[in-house]
Structure prediction request, 195 residues.
Amino acid sequence: MGVIAFNPMLRAGYDVKLAAGVITAGGTLGILIPPSVMIIVYAAVAGQSVVKLYAAAMFPGFFLSFLYLIYIIGWALIDPKIAPPLPEEQTRVKVPAWIKTFEQVYSPNMFVALLKALVSPAQAKTLEADGKPMTYPAIVQNFVIALVPFLMTAITLATVWWYVVIHQQAAAATGPIEGLQQTRQRSVGADRDAG
Prediction:
């Protein structure tokens, strides 16, 4: 990741010290912020719970990233030549013309506009997308594409919740209860002594 990020930062005119420092700081944060392979390896070697180690590393990792963020922004505000703003052509994304018209017809928020178009597609069908008339399947396809980040977030959070809540409780329920096991051993021992 450092090799990928370093060259674009240098091409954008960032100071070499800043670029190298950001990549180094990001590398050190990689072992603290989940998903961290180092924590899993350490947990396996040390015989500790991965979940507890993740919980212990989460706050320091995010706090350090917050401090790095403040430091870098502060340094860039004090000395703007170390992180010059990007040229206009690198900050803009070319949007197809039909999207601008689509937003004017329905809503400036694309997600809301797609929802409205799903409910009432008559106005959307009058538009042309890439030289073709807009169809209802195209509206559905764009809506599903817009849902991908939400679905990924929901699936990730549901998986984490399942692992932490359901899986841990199920694993705890399958093990023997210590008090009952000790009582059972005492009663078996007492029966042997009596027999």
Q: What stands out?
A: The radius of gyration is 28 Å. The longest strand covers residues 128-129. The CA atoms of residues 8 and 62 lie 25 Å apart.
